[in-house]
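Entry 12.
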Amino acid sequence: EEPKDISGDKTYSIKDAKLRTEEDKRRHRAEQKKAKIRLEVKEMQEIVAQQREHNRTLPPQVQLSERELLLDPEYAEILLAKEKACLEEVRQEKEYATEKSERLLRKLSKRFLSTVETELMALNAFKSSRCVFTFATRAHCDAFRELVDADDELQKRETSERASIIDTDNQQLNTLEASTGRGSEARGFGVGNGAGGSSDDSREEELTREEERKLKRVQRQQALERIKAECPGKDTDMPADLEAIKYALENKGDYRLKMGA
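Predicted 3D structure (tokens):
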């Protein structure tokens, strides 16, 4: 029977054994030296821990601070400097990969998320297995946004101009009332006092056409404001509907099926 070939990874051939024997010996001696140093360091750590424990048992006025317990401050600073240098070296090594990942993330976000106003989201119920998904909404183009902004600006400008015109008309009306001395009578002009009596004709003769237009404009604006104040809100139900619902609830019949026992 033929002997089996040695195929283990840790077994050297005759040629490799001659080349690597010395290397294995050096590695073995290095490992022994490291183990010895680790043992010494461990013993020193135990001694320091015992000293710290003994220091904590002393009275507060006799205890040493952490800085005073430091045997070699200069060596500690050297170790801290080496630690910072190692951290900086690792950061510089990973900086390229980090920058590359961030750039890729920005490109993906710009490509797929810049045109999305609302992302697709899943809403899960707490006490059941139901799940509801929202709709993903695409964002409007820049031209449409500019048109919307321009329209909003135009509406704001028109509102401010309308408010300024109303204020000017009110001021002119007050000035007119103060000059004529008939404020209450002038405000009643144009509302409608029948087919036109002698008092209305006399007031019309006193006021010029421009003043009449201003008074009518102010009266129309005041009437419009009163109508807006009396209008119900968007979510307010009509009184007729509420009355109909109340009547239906009070007069509804009992339509349950009656079954014999």
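Annotation: The beta strands are 116-118, 122-124, 131-133, 137-138. Residues 182-197 have pLDDT under 50 and may be disordered.
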